[in-house]
Amino acid sequence: MYKVKFMSGFDLKVLGIILMLGDHIYECFSNQGAPIWLTVLGRAVAPIFLFLSAEGFYYTHSKFFFFMLDSLIYSCF
């Protein structure tokens, strides 16, 4: 049986970047009449990036280093 691949990790990242850009455009221009669907679509970015982060953690060779790097990055925010 053949495995059908719908989207790669890179495709998900590009989709997330485009949707996040739409969300930021809405935040900047909401008082000038930007459509609300830009922010609705932009809210799907967090689950996409959390999925990619969990997948990266699953496939990494050094889980401790990955965890420490993620902790360092998230502690800055």
How would you describe what is shown here?
The protein is mainly alpha-helical and 77 residues long. It has one domain (9-75). The chain is 71% helix and 0% strand. It contains four helices and no strands. It has helices spanning 9-29, 37-42, 45-59, 63-75. The N and C termini lie far apart (45 Å). 1% of the residues are buried. The mean pLDDT is 83.
Topology:
Elements: H1 9-29, H2 37-42, H3 45-59, H4 63-75
Helix pairs in contact: 1-3
Termini Cα gap: 45 Å
Number of strands: 0
Helix percentage: over 70%
Mean pLDDT: 83
Radius of gyration equals 16 Å
Low-confidence stretches: none
Write the element-wise H/E pattern from the N-terminal end onward: HHHH
Q: Characterize the overall form.
A: flat
Structural class: mainly alpha
Number of helices: 4
Brief characterization of the structure:
With 77 residues, the protein is mainly alpha-helical. The protein has helices at 9-29, 37-42, 45-59, 63-75.
Features:
4 helices, single chain, mainly alpha, 77 residues
